[in-house]
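Example record

One chain of 224 residues, shown exactly as stored in the release files.
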Amino acid sequence: MLAAGHDSVPGAQAALEKLCRTYWFPLYAFARRQGNSPEDAQDLTQDFFSRLLEKNYLATVHPDRGKFRTFLLKSLKNFLVNEWKRAGRLKRGGGVEFLSIDTNEAEELYAAEVPDKFNPDAEYETQWAVTLIEQVLTTLRQEFDAADKGRLFEELKGFIWGDKTIASYAAIAGQLNLTEGTVKVAVHRLRRRFRELLRAEVANTVARPEEIDVELRHLISVLR
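Predicted structure tokens for this chain:
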């Protein structure tokens, strides 16, 4: 998180892009909750990140000023207020698009969600948590694919959350021509790797190691 705000830090650009991709949809959804059309919400979100870069606001992020997700939401709220007051806001397509985002997919995701019309802040937190989980699952799937174990991942991924509809160890073992013991070991390793990747994702958004567990507990409470 702190690296993203300082160009001189190695990996700063990669860190910045990762953070932007993580928070783009939660912030877009928040902008939509404020009554903006899909097109306006897309513009506002892109303009917000452009302003964030242009003014280098990330350089002002400090560990003592709270969580990064809170900083971003507060910054977006201020930005929206300023944009509403500004009569000459850039028209669609006229701003700087620094990050390629599938805006159609974003709107489809938004439309599929059940909106919490009474608490857009809580909805933002939910989208933040869901986005982090999706990133972890994507990384995990890529690791299994790279090891030529893509089918194993698809069969076992439900065990991460204890999906009660998933087939039994024995049934999966029969489908994959493995022993039941091998499947149990694979599930144990899958869950352990998931926890490692999730912890790493959360670590990217906090300033101090001791904040990781706090954020993890918050993430779990939000998802519940």
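Notes: Residues 1-6, 89-98 have pLDDT under 50 and may be disordered.
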